[in-house]
Amino acid sequence: MGAAALALSASDRRAVAADHLDxxxxxxxxxxxxxxxxADIADVYVWHTAENLVIALTFAGPAPPGEAAVYDRDVLYxxxxxxxxxxxxxxxxxxxxxxxxxxxxxxxxxxGLPDGGPPLVGPVETTLSRNGILARAGLYxxxxxxxxxxxxxxxxxxxxxxVSSRNFFAASNDTALVVQIxxxxxxxxxxxxxxxxxxxxxxxxx
Length: 206
Fold this sequence. Notes:
Layout: E1 5-8, E2 13-16, H1 24-27, E3 41-48, E4 52-63, E5 75-82, E6 92-100, E7 106-111, E8 120-123, E9 128-130, E10 133-141, H2 148-157, E11 173-182, H3 183-186, E12 192-200
Antiparallel strand pairs: 1-2, 1-12, 3-4, 4-11, 5-6, 5-12, 6-7, 7-8, 9-10, 10-11
């Protein structure tokens, strides 16, 4: 399953976002009554400060308030980063999976971080750190703003029906992994292309 992709350079900002319920036959309850929510990537967000690059991958949403985060041990998430000028050839692949300890508490394992260190492992809803890298997995307010009702009405009638104050995702949550990486560990002077994938280990749910 694919996800949103972004290309970033010093002089250009391009993005393709909002990947909820894609592919529909696997993740949309309207097409599949056993929809695979855990593997449904929502969005990839990327921004930077003078020192750091921040990447947020959201999935398993939108979920109503009060619903728990989704930590499926059989889904492998990968944040792909191309930093050598070939947009579809990732030099960095940050992979993460969830699991539970003997007490049933959920944790995350993150591999492929650009500092070259061992897997970063720890509990969810906790900021993990190493060599200037910060990472946190947990439940977040869905940051995407979109008028889905207006989109559907526009498609049905052919008349633009968007309302700028109407947000379908308001008060909804996603599960997410947010990772902050020192720019010195990731930038080469070439454009960065960043995208994400989710793969269910063992194949499709039945």
